[in-house]
């Protein structure tokens, strides 16, 4: 009894030891927090610069002497919209993003379902063919895609912007990893009950894999929205181009008007920032889920 009872001196020593351990842990974590802070500033710095500069007069930005928050203005946005059809091109980007993300979702979903539940003889070999395409740089196939699009008469159209990216090997891989861990008992019970492949897909498989569906949708949408090189090559008229190409043209024609260029950048960045902020938990959960299975 006397051995298990702690005296005040022992309790004080224990608290001191706990505080020392906590301090050691905090000190050990300091380099991690410093590193994360530096990385966060490096990532967020250009974005903050674009958004603050979008509401600051160009003369103030170029002068650099006066604080930016002294004179807010919307003139930069008026100048950007007046010199480039950004609103129409914004609509083009929305259509391209929806079409490309939807196509990638459907095609990768079908491919992954066939790989896992299609009773293929060599599903891993088929998957290897998909994965090999991820090792090929997109720049090596861009000429072949360009010649193909021109030969079928789709040059300078919105369809040409997204149709070469109708499928994604990375999305197939993520779906396949998620479907591999699906309980076989549920699949076998559904088959015995006469549930067809389409009904099984939409009634059982997709509802139980919502995080990976959201992750692939977000990744595909972000990639489609940020596309620049291919839309620049395959479109010619301003009415057929996406907003990213339109902002670049704005920079070329108004190289001295930094404020309007930053206004265009802020206008283009805002949708993806909102999408990432609200979909961050799905991105983290879905990518982790696909990586460990």
UniProtKB/TrEMBL annotation:
Sequence intervals crossing the membrane: 33-55, 94-118, 125-147, 153-175, 212-234, 254-278
Keyword Nucleotide-binding appears in the UniProt entry: no
Enumerate the PROSITE patterns for this protein.
ABC_TM1 (PS50928)
Looking at the record, the residues that make up the ABC transmembrane type-1 domain are 90-279
Q: Name one Pfam family in it.
A: BPD_transp_1
Residue ranges of region Disordered? 1-22
Q: Which InterPro entries match?
A: MetI-like, MetI-like_sf
Q: What is its main location?
A: membrane
Per the record, membrane topology reads: Multi-pass membrane protein
Alphabetic keyword roster: Cell membrane, Membrane, Transmembrane, Transmembrane helix, Transport
| Alphabetized CDD domains for the sequence | TM_PBP2 (cd06261)
Where in the cell? Cell membrane
Protein family? Belongs to the binding-protein-dependent transport system permease family.
PANTHER family in alphabetical order = ABC TRANSPORTER PERMEASE PROTEIN MG189-RELATED-RELATED (PTHR43744), SN-GLYCEROL-3-PHOSPHATE TRANSPORT SYSTEM PERMEASE PROTEIN UGPE (PTHR43744:SF8)
- What name does UniProt use for this protein? Sn-glycerol 3-phosphate transport system permease protein
Q: Which organism does this record belong to?
A: Arthrobacter russicus
